[in-house]
């Protein structure tokens, strides 16, 4: 596994260099790029790389970037995907203005051009079965075999192609192929399929068409129609470039775009294949496309990841020409870095253990002042209630602690953040012998968290008032896959059984429960959290966006 090096100069790469050179030499006066998703699934973080590249170049060089749906396969495409893709591109902070297109807008023109290819002797209707076509295509070391239908007369080809269009033939019985070279070293040039018969209703063209263009035929011609100057795609299309250029050369296209390839994003612990992501949803391994464990843009958004952190991540990894795998830790770093600055601090107890402060007066409540952001005084302060009964985090207490455990244990004194020093004086257990409640005393002289006599404690812990805190469900997410390089073929075996932990009895501050801003908050010592759309009145649900490198880990000791 290699980690892609951070681009030497973030924001500069070989594609931007080409664009710059083309502007300087006046080859182009205005740059036009496009992002061309097939609407057969939701966008993922890999697409974010392509979006940031295409829209980013348009922004930086005062050009424009089109959003074009590559909707040539109606059996797999849905309006839901079209809608989600638009929402996700906007969420990432990019906009296509009025330049929203569909490959299906060009079906008539593509068809006419295909007739032109036939008339010029550059395409023919092949009656071989799919299997025969596959076998006769040859291999990397063996040339292909000419189809017995390759030398059909033009009139016959034209007649058959028109009847394919008219819906006369069943699916899979005939295709239109480019007539290039069955012995070409590049398999993509061995008479590639341009049209196939597909009796399927299309979300936009309905039942008008019984034939649909292949990706290779539709893509370059759509680029040419739209005046795309730089058609940027991932490396797997490098071998398609000669075909892309062959078609542009043979057809009366209004412009000649150039295709450039870059390395797709791969991430550790992550699969970025729409086939796999679709299956994860269909087979119920996740709740939906926007399940916060998914690497989809919708999943990242629901998890509380700020779009700026995604943009920063994409900028840091840069754009290279060689495939590699990026450590998912890099993405997590960008998320933490962003949220550490932006997120307000609150307290929440994820796994509560009750504490009774025996020397605190019954019925008394104090409002203590808590800081909202340690590095941002403008974020202000808030009041939190302290009382006789509190909750602390269950694993902040140990009855028989090892030597380096500085948090609460019988006889040991700790600081409750923003409140007082407390000392554990007793432990209450249930019949099974589990600790269910602690008895403590507090030192009234330590209000605010400092002892006037200068005595020190080695741990500071978060807490909440039992009476004034609010119950909440908190969902803690871990990597969806436990294997750093999960198998796309057999992904189910690599799923992490602990990718989701639901904490039903968590407690949060009342202000957190009431917050509808959608902003991510830091729950001190626990990480970053955001309200989930599953929240109902009286039952707030929070997602953990990401864990924390405990900011006062040293002080607390042991807790990583
Ligand atoms: P599949 O997952 O089935 O390979 P796809 O992700 O390529 O599908 P498209 O909708 O065709 O699906 O992708 C749209 C654009 O996003 C393409 O230009 C593609 O090159 C780019 N893209 C897709 N995956 C990545 C990735 N992991 N990194 C960078 N760009 C990507
Ligand atoms: Mg694709």
Automatic annotation (TrEMBL):
EC number: 6.1.1.18
The keyword Ribosomal protein is annotated on this UniProt entry: no
Residues the record lists as binding ATP: 38-40, 44-50, 234, 264-265, 272-274
A GO molecular-function annotation: ATP binding
InterPro entries: aa-tRNA-synth_I_CS, Gln-tRNA-synth, Gln/Glu-tRNA_Ligase, Gln_tRNA_ligase_bac, Glu/Gln-tRNA-synth, Glu/Gln-tRNA-synth_Ib_cat-dom, Glu/Gln-tRNA-synth_Ib_codon-bd, Glu_tRNA_lig_a-bdl
Motif ('HIGH' region): 37-47
GO CC annotation terms, alphabetical: cytosol
Binding site for L-glutamine: 70, 215
Catalytic activity: tRNA(Gln) + L-glutamine + ATP = L-glutaminyl-tRNA(Gln) + AMP + diphosphate
UniProt-listed Pfam families: tRNA-synt_1c (PF00749), tRNA-synt_1c_C (PF03950), tRNA-synt_1c_C2 (PF20974)
Domain Glutamyl/glutaminyl-tRNA synthetase class Ib anti-codon binding: residue ranges: 343-443
Subcellular location: Cytoplasm
Domain of life: Bacteria
Motif stretch ('KMSKS' region): 271-275
Broad class of the protein's primary localization: cytoplasm
GO biological process, one term: glutamyl-tRNA aminoacylation
Annotated keywords: Aminoacyl-tRNA synthetase, ATP-binding, Cytoplasm, Ligase, Nucleotide-binding, Protein biosynthesis
Domain Glutamyl/glutaminyl-tRNA synthetase class Ib catalytic: 31-340
tRNA synthetases class I (E and Q) anti-codon binding domain residues: 460-532
Record's subunit section: Monomer.
Entry's family note: Belongs to the class-I aminoacyl-tRNA synthetase family.
UniProt-listed NCBIfam families: glnS, PRK14703.1
Protein name: Glutamine--tRNA ligase
UniProt source species: Bradyrhizobium jicamae
């Amino acid at each position: 596994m290699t980690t892609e090096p951070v681009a030497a100069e973030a924001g500069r790469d070989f594609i931007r260099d080409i664009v710059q050179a083309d502007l300087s030499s006046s080859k182009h006066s205005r740059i036009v790029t496009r992002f061309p998703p097939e609407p057969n699934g939701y966008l993922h973080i890999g697409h974010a790389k392509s979006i940031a590249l295409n829209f980013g170049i348009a922004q930086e060089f005062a050009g424009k970037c089109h959003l074009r749906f590559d909707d040539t396969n109606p059996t797999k495409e849905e309006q839901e995907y079209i809608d989600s893709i638009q929402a996700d591109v906007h969420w990432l902070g990019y906009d296509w203005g009025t330049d929203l297109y569909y490959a299906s807008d060009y079906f008539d023109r593509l068809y006419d051009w295909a007739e032109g290819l036939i008339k010029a002797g550059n395409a023919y209707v092949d009656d071989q079965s799919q299997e025969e076509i596959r076998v006769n295509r040859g291999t990397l070391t063996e040339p292909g075999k000419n189809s017995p239908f390759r030398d059909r007369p033009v009139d016959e080809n034209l007649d058959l192609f028109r009847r394919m269009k008219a819906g006369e033939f069943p699916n899979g019985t005939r295709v239109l192929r480019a007539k290039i070279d069955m012995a070409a070293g590049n398999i993509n040039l061995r008479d590639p399929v341009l049209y196939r018969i597909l009796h399927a209703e299309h979300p936009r063209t309905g039942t008008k068409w019984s034939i649909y263009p292949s990706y290779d035929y539709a893509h370059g011609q759509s680029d040419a129609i739209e005046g795309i100057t730089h058609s940027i795609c991932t490396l797997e299309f490098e071998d398609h470039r000669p075909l892309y250029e062959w078609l542009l050369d043979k057809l009366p296209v209004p412009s000649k775009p150039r295709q450039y390839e870059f390395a797709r994003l791969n991430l550790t612990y992550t699969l970025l294949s729409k086939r796999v992501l679709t299956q994860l949803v269909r087979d119920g391994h996740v709740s939906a496309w926007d399940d916060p464990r998914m690497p989809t843009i919708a999943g990242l958004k629901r998890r509380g990841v700020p779009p700026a952190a995604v943009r920063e991540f994409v900028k840091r990894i840069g754009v290279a020409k060689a495939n590699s795998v990026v450590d998912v830790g890099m993405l997590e770093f960008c998320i933490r870095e962003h949220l550490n600055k932006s997120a307000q601090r609150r307290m929440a107890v994820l796994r509560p253990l009750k504490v009774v402060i025996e020397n605190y007066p019954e019925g008394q409540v104090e409002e203590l002042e808590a800081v909202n952001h340690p590095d941002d005084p403008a974020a202000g302060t808030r009041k939190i209630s302290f009382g006789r009964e509190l909750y602390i985090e269950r694993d902040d207490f140990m009855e028989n602690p090892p030597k380096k455990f500085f948090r609460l244990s019988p006889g040991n004194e700790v600081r409750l953040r923003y409140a007082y020093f407390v000392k554990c004086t007793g432990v209450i257990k249930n019949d099974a012998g589990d600790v269910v409640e602690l008895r403590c005393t507090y030192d009234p002289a330590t209000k605010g968290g400092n002892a006037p006599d200068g005595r020190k404690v080695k741990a500071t812990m978060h807490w909440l008032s039992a009476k004034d805190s609010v119950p909440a469900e908190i969902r803690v997410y871990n990597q969806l896959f436990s294997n750093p390089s999960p198998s796309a073929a057999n992904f189910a075996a690599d799923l992490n059984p602990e990718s989701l932990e639901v904490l039903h009895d968590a407690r949060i501050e009342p202000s957190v429960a009431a917050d509808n801003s959608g902003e991510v908050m830091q729950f001190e010592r626990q990480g970053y959290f955001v309200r989930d759309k599953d929240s109902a009145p009286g039952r707030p649900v929070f997602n953990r966006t990401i864990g924390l490198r405990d900011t006062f880990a040293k002080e607390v000791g042991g807790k990583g």
